[in-house]
Design brief:
291 residues; two-stranded antiparallel sheet; 5% strand
Length: 291
């Protein structure tokens, strides 16, 4: 297992990047939880299915996508993607052709899949409302009744598609930052996001910079295991490696904290995540939405 620790050169972080990344990271983790849950707590299966689904969302007339392209999109090993893609085929969710993997049409149109798309949309809307409350976006939410009945509207589908693209980009970014160790990147993200959740959800614009250590609340390995739907021992192993590398600090029996100094050293990740969110907002504006 890689012991790589992201080390970035100091650089200028755009104003608003830190609150924006705090808010968008909650969307990212909620989406990862959703995709894992709908595939029976199998994270990689959920990611592979969503990467294939995005091919249809982005281009409804589009066909299959090759396993190598899926591996590139997710920044996961080819064999890992191939194995999970074949599991989806055997489960009847996807089909395998000479051109690659595609979601079965009946699955695409199923109520269960529509409900997943709606959940992605609602998660994204929650993020957009949070960004707007923090003065970082200008989203205007539609009526609540329109969000929960029947198929998604054109605007809702535009949000679901753009936010799925951001989710997949976030997965690739974590893989890049952590030298292909996606699980370690997810554990790290879940820890620091939990440390500042109380601020993110109540005072999203409280700080334009990194929150100080006295504003961070420790989180237990058990809580992270539950939130990521990963085995406790898997999370504990990654948490110990992060602690050994100086990325996390244990606060007695209360749990783990990612110190402010670590965030300052990993500024390029913040800049990349900020760029993904601003690209999402630009995509929505091009689709005719106020964002």
């Amino acid at each position: 297992m890689s012991q790589h620790v992201p080390q970035n050169e100091p650089l200028e972080v755009p104003r608003g990047a830190y609150p924006m990344v705090r808010i968008s990271s909650e969307f990212f983790l909620r989406s990862v939880d959703l995709l894992t849950r709908v595939q029976g707590d199998k994270l990689n299966s959920g990611l592979v299915f969503m990467a294939v689904s995005y091919n249809h969302m982005h281009d409804p007339g589009g066909g299959a996508v090759g396993v190598r392209e899926l591996a590139r999109r997710l920044n996961l090993p080819y064999e890992t993607v191939r194995r999970h893609a074949m599991e989806l085929v055997r489960a009847g969710q996807c089909s395998a052709t000479r051109d690659g993997i595609a979601v079965v049409p009946a699955v695409l149109k199923s109520r269960a899949n529509v409900d997943v798309m709606r959940s992605i949309y609602l998660n994204a809307e929650r993020m957009l409302i949070g960004l707007t409350r923090a003065g970082l976006a200008k989203y205007e939410a539609p009526s609540r009744s329109a969000a929960r009945r029947g198929n998604l509207t054109r605007d809702q589908m535009a949000i679901a598609t753009a936010s799925t693209r951001q989710l997949l980009a976030g997965v690739r970014m974590l893989g890049d930052l952590w030298q292909g160790d996606l699980l370690r990147g997810l554990v790290f993200t879940a820890i620091w996001t939990a440390n500042v959740k109380h601020v993110t959800n109540t005072e999203p614009s409280v700080s334009q910079t990194v929150l100080s250590d006295d504003q961070r609340l420790p989180v237990s390995v058990l809580a992270i295991s539950s939130s990521l739907r990963l085995p406790y021992e898997t999370v504990r192993r990654h948490a110990l490696a992060l602690e050994k590398a100086g990325i996390c600090r244990r606060v007695g029996r209360q749990g783990l904290v990612v110190p402010a100094a670590v965030h300052l050293k990993m500024a390029s990740g913040t800049v990349q995540a900020h760029g993904m969110v601003t690209a999402l907002l630009a995509d929505l504006r091009r689709a005719g939405l106020k964002a």
